[in-house]
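Rotation project, supervised by the postdoc (A.L.). Task for the rotation student: set up a whole-complex structure prediction and record inputs and outputs verbatim in this book. Inputs entered:
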Amino acid sequence: MAGNWLLPAETTSSGRPVLQPGEVESSLQPTVDLVNEENPNLPIFKSGLLILTTYRLLWLPNPESTTSAPTSKAVAVPLAAITHIFQSKKSIKGMFASPRVRFQVSVTPDGRVQERGSKSAVITLVFRGKSDPDSFVGKFYEAWRGRAWVGAVSASSQGESMPVVLGDGGGSSSSDTGFALKMPVVGVSGILRKEQEMWESTDKSLQDAFQDLNALMTKAKDMVILAEKMRQKLLSSSSSSSSSTQTNATNDEEMSSKEEMQEWLLSVGIISPVTKESAGALYHQQLSRQLADFVKIPLEKAGGIMNLIDIYCLFNRARGTELISPDDLLRACSLWEKFNVYVQTTNSLASHSALESRLIKLYLSKSSYYVDFYCSPVMLKKFESGVMVIQNKSHSDEEVFSRIRTLVQKPDALQTGISATDAARMLGIAPAMAKEHLLAAESKGFLCRDVSPDGFRFYINIFQDIDPNDLYLVKEYGIYDAWNRAAIASR
Amino acid sequence: MRRRPGIGGLQTAAAARDQYRLLGENVAKLRTDLMKEQLSTFRSQLEDFARKHKNDIRKNPVFRSQFHEMCAKVGVDPLASNKGFWAELLGIGDFYYELGVQIVDICLATRPHNGGLINLEELCKILSQRRKGAREAVSEDDCLRAISKLKVLGSGFEVITVGKRKLVRSVPTELKKDHNEILELSQAQGFVTVEEVERRLSWSTGRATDALETLLDEGLAMIDDGHRDGKRRYWFPCVSSVSSFVSSETL
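Outputs recorded:
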């Protein structure tokens, strides 16, 4: 149990933390040690990445360091468990040592960090890198005092109660007859009055919130709920009104605003975008990971391949106001590539099994390479035309080659070969892409080309099956055999 | 309400029901109108804030995420920088980057209808609608400048000229499925004309011409201007052997 005196934290496949709903990232610090002062026997978390969020303090093993054991996992200290943050002492001695931040947490009797633990322990953070602990302490203190995790519980319960209120509102417009009959007559005016009051209060809260920025900041949570309410109502009202008899003009207008809403809903996604301010020197490295996590879903929807510019738009849309420049995006993508290059130079087979990547990792750590090590499932590809795309690795060469191979072994293809157009139709890709794939397959030795007035045609390579010492030997059930049969059948 | 027997009773009940429904409809209508009004205030306020307090919003990560959520829920584009002096002069600042993101967004949204080829004029129009909160109008020149900022990300996004019009192409040849449809179409006769492609696939002229020109450049098509009707024919020898069609035509 010695290793898990801290709570485990989840990470994504590219090594970004998985945040809880409502949790927002505020600062990242590289190479930080996490030490338990009470009990020095407990394992020390050495030079990892420290992430401060509004709920937790996360410590992630540093992928760049060669010293951290591969087994060490990401851990978390819930801010709720922190009972005190010590002021850092300024002394002459402190000038030369790495800056430290100490804080007290409540722990269970057996030493695990927990909210409302009976005992307490002091944890020290040691900042080894060139970082700015002072601003971090400021943010740390702010996040701790902000107590965002308290609001999260009540917000989720509010979220549950809200649909009930909405259900009342929606019910009157969709099933108004039943609603009116059930209510006593005096109730109608009562409902109207209540309605009126509700609108007035909404009006007032809107006015209050938008007085200035500070007012909006304090009221932000209510406003988010209000926005959600409005969206729901608009969506439900326009769907019910489209069935009722209304003039086409207003219908169109409503439909367009509804479309707008839905479209926008799709475009939010990243709650804690990596920014230069929060990540500092780690900016591009963290951005690269966030991007790798982000592109998975759109890539899947697009069939495994996407124009880099489309990704640029979607990624920025998901980041809201935190735009990244095209150059930053390119750099984030090229960090994946850096990893790929290493794989190819260290392992000529270039396959990505878990065992092998561990072997590579071992090799790299021995030769003390400075590598940003994580296995990204996506890659950047540049075509000769200058077009850049992002594609899934699984979508890449191996799979396409195997599909091409089955294609050229069909009886028809054995006789007449396939053209780029055929391949394009079969694989469901553009002819220009198909041609690239065919040429690549040819260079691997799977295909042979035949140039005729009808253009390029590709055939299965049967030279591999022919034994130079015995030219007339036809191996049974080989490709050569299949080709022979097809040739005979066509006669 | 006491239930009365007989046809008269039923009729009264029905009349009452009608009344209630009418009232309910009125209330519902009133409610929608009111809500629309509030929504539009909400929107315009958010737009204002996005423009005025951009830097303050970005400084506070928690508020930033809440602000984004609000914007997303009521349908406000948080990207609303003014062009400003420096952007105009040197092309620096967020303005052109924001515009770039919005342009690609529009291209993505309209792609199902136009196959990734959009008229620059139309693009500008949609863009201005999106940015109706902003005071400055967006010119075609601004669009071109924003698009040129995307050059770093490869040549998948470009402005081409067909006839007198400028078109923005957002799908690179490598990812274009239009060509497949043309090839499919050409299987019947071995050739297609621009008119035929437009009619059969209900594409715009630009889209069809662009796709056929690309196929020509790729070496997949051959043109034949010498036919009796004077229309240019695009032959696709790769689809099926030309000789078989030639022989069948001469026979």
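Student's summary: Chain B is about 60% helix and 10% strand.
Supervisor addendum: Chain B touches chain A through 86 residues (CB under 8 Å).
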